[in-house]
């Protein structure tokens, strides 16, 4: 939803933030389960400023993703945030 993007303070010009979110998703394994080894995951997730973002693979050749924020109250978004916190603690 475009209004969520505006609320989250993200637009298509925020390349640095988008790259940070991609790094976070891969660093902490916030990727769709069952991805074939060596292939790009079809779905990834990251968290920024209290918002959970979901990215969909759009170009499997080069790993390009289109991402957007999930609704803040959505249970799945909350689950991703909890998962990230657990994984960050285990990385420390």
Low-confidence stretches: none
Assign the structural class, choosing from mainly alpha, mainly beta, alpha/beta, alpha+beta, or little secondary structure. Answer: alpha+beta
Order of helices and strands: HHEEEH
The residue fraction in helices comes out at 40-55%
Euclidean distance between termini CA atoms: 34 Å
Strand order, biggest sheet? Answer: 1-2-3
Tell me, rounded to a whole number, the average pLDDT: 89
β-strand amount = 15-25%
Rg value: 13 Å
Number of strands: 3
User: What's the main sheet like?
Assistant: 3 strands, antiparallel
Shape: globular
The helix tally amounts to 3
Could you explain how this protein is built, in words?
- The protein has three helices and three strands; from the N terminus they run H-H-E-E-E-H.
- The protein has helices at residues 2-8, 15-27, 75-91, and strands at 43-48, 51-59, 64-69.
- With 92 residues, the chain is of the alpha+beta class.
- The model has no long low-confidence stretch (mean pLDDT 89).
Fill in the keyword field for this structure.
40% helix; alpha+beta; 3-stranded antiparallel β-sheet; 92 residues; globular; single chain
């Amino acid at each position: 939803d475009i209004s969520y993007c505006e609320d989250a303070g993200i637009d298509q010009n925020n390349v640095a933030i988008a790259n940070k979110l991609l790094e976070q998703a891969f660093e902490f394994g916030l990727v769709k389960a069952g991805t074939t080894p060596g292939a790009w995951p079809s779905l990834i997730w990251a968290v920024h400023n209290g918002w959970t973002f979901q990215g969909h693979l759009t170009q499997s050749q080069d790993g390009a993703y289109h991402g957007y924020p999930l609704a803040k109250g959505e249970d799945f978004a909350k689950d991703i945030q909890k998962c990230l916190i657990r994984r960050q603690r285990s990385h420390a």
